[in-house]
């Protein structure tokens, strides 16, 4: 092998199993949720009746998508030899979609091969209902990450009522909505709540011991025997449990830790690799959240970054603001009032990119906020550099 490639087979037995796209066929930590989904929602199908509409919710990485995929596959297997039952399952992610229009277009494309994007909404829905009619029988649509389309959207009560409203006949459409956002349900339009949420199933965050079991099962298949220590698994589980309780996060830590071990030509994944992996994954997450910031948020961050490079942090709000106005005159954008920059700094604090600490103002009035960046300076500079407009300012930072 040339120096450009590396043989990772001493660490990984089957690396695919650590990828996002892998669906496990065993989720014992979700027994309660799977039972409810099976017994309360899907069982009518075995009696040739449409399942109830259902709503699955919980924070990201709690096995919602995996559980829905797994159980619908099981259901397909159950009905396979029963010719009197015609069941079709359609998975549709709403990620990146902001309206039911886009989701409906995607569904039509999935079913007919043609995307009706650009046509009037009524026509898109007519095509969708025609496509359903063509399939017939029982159609179950899983709308994953449905919170993306907003909770005022009509698709959530239109689809479950397609038959009642005469859009389809002699067949049935049921909807299973999945949401990562807990507030989505609370704010859902009452009509949508009424038709979609016949059964609601909550997926609470995993604790460390559940994450350990998940990682153990996954690593048995993914890693070479004995390549991962129990300590490394326990640490990855503990770190993820402390943070979001997300299985996705725990699996990412372990995968990255394996990659670090492989890169260093070591035959074991150790706790040290897991720590390195956590640090790396968190920096990547922060880099992504910096990319997603609005321009004014980025400018506030740029001001603080430039103060950091000069060792001037933690800085009080007026100092950050003064740097901010220097920068806005430089990069040719409008500047906003100090009060609003302060509120941008609080937003950055919320997502963990900066941190603000209150200090008492002593004899000179009430408490003041002092700000500093919460991320690695180099990472922050590199990500901000992706915006060419910041080049001049960042060049100055590099020189200091
Ligand atoms: P969600 O849809 O709730 O965000 P996913 O179902 O995508 O979460 O799960 C995130 C990752 O964790 C996936 O790789 C999934 O296979 C895995 N996972 C989640 N829960 C379990 C579990 N109980 N057993 C095995 N793997 C799991
Ligand atoms: Mg999901």
Description of the molecule:
The chain is an alpha/beta fold. The protein folds into three domains: 154 residues, 3-Layer(aba) Sandwich (Rossmann fold); 83 residues, Helicase, Ruva Protein, domain 3; 105 residues, Orthogonal Bundle (Arc Repressor Mutant, subunit A). The protein has 16 helices and eight strands. A five-stranded parallel sheet has the order 2-3-4-1-5, with helices on both faces. The protein has a three-stranded antiparallel sheet with strand order 6-8-7. Bound molecules: adenosine-5'-diphosphate and magnesium ion (MG). The site of adenosine-5'-diphosphate (ADP) has 17 residues, from helix 2 and helix 10.
Structural class: alpha/beta
- The helix content, as a percent range, equals 40-55%
Shape: globular
Share in β-strands: 5-15%
The fold-level CATH name of the largest domain is Rossmann fold
Low-confidence residue ranges: none
**Cα-based radius of gyration, to the nearest Å:** 26 Å
The CATH homologous superfamily of the largest domain: P-loop containing nucleotide triphosphate hydrolases
Major beta sheet, strand line-up: 2-3-4-1-5
Structure summary, number of beta strands: 8
Quickly count the helices: 16
CATH architecture name of the largest domain: 3-Layer(aba) Sandwich
Number of domains: 3
Cα(first) to Cα(last) distance is 43 Å
Largest sheet: 5 strands, parallel
Order of helices and strands: HEHEHHEHEHHEHHHHHEHHEEHH
Overall residue-averaged pLDDT value = 92
Q: What's the CATH C level of the largest domain? A: Alpha Beta
Heteromolecules bound: adenosine-5'-diphosphate, magnesium ion
């Amino acid at each position: 092998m040339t120096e450009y490639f590396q043989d990772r087979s001493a660490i990984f037995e089957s690396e695919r199993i650590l990828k996002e796209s892998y669906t496990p066929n065993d989720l014992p930590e979700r027994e309660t949720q799977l039972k409810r989904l099976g017994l309360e929602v899907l069982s009518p199908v075995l009696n040739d009746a449409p399942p109830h509409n259902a709503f699955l919710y919980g924070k990201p990485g709690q096995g919602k998508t995996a559980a829905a995929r797994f159980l619908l596959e099981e259901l397909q297997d159950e009905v396979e030899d029963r010719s009197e039952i015609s069941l079709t399952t359609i998975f549709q992610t709403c990620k990146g979609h902001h309206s039911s229009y886009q989701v409906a277009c995607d569904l039509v494309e999935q079913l007919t091969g043609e995307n009706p994007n650009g046509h009037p909404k009524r026509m898109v829905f007519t095509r969708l209902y025609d496509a359903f009619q063509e399939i017939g029988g029982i159609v179950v649509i899983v709308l994953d990450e449905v919170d993306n389309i907003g909770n005022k959207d009509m698709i959530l009560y239109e689809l479950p009522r397609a038959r009642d409203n005469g859009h389809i006949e002699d067949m049935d459409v049921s909807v299973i909505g999945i949401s990562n956002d807990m507030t989505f349900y609370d704010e859902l339009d009452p009509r949508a709540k009424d038709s979609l949420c016949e059964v609601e199933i909550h997926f609470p965050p995993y604790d460390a011991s559940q994450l350990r079991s998940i990682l153990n099962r996954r690593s048995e298949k993914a890693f070479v025997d004995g390549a991962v220590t129990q300590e490394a698994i326990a640490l990855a589980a503990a770190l993820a449990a402390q943070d979001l309780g997300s299985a996705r996060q725990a699996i990412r830590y372990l995968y990255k830790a394996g990659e670090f071990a492989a890169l260093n030509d070591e035959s074991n994944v150790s706790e040290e690799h897991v720590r390195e992996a956590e640090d790396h994954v968190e920096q990547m997450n922060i880099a992504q959240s910096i990319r997603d910031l609005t321009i004014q948020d980025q400018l506030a961050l740029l001001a603080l970054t430039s103060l950091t490079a000069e060792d001037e942090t933690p800085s009080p709000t007026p100092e950050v603001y003064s740097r901010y106005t220097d920068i806005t005159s430089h990069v040719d954008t409008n500047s906003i009032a100090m009060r609003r920059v302060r509120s941008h700094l609080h937003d950055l604090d919320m997502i963990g990119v900066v941190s603000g600490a209150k200090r008492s103002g002593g004899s000179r009035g009430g408490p003041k906020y002092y700000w500093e960046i919460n991320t690695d300076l180099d990472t922050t500079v590199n990500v901000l550099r992706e915006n060419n407009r910041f080049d001049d300012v960042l060049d100055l930072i590099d020189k200091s």
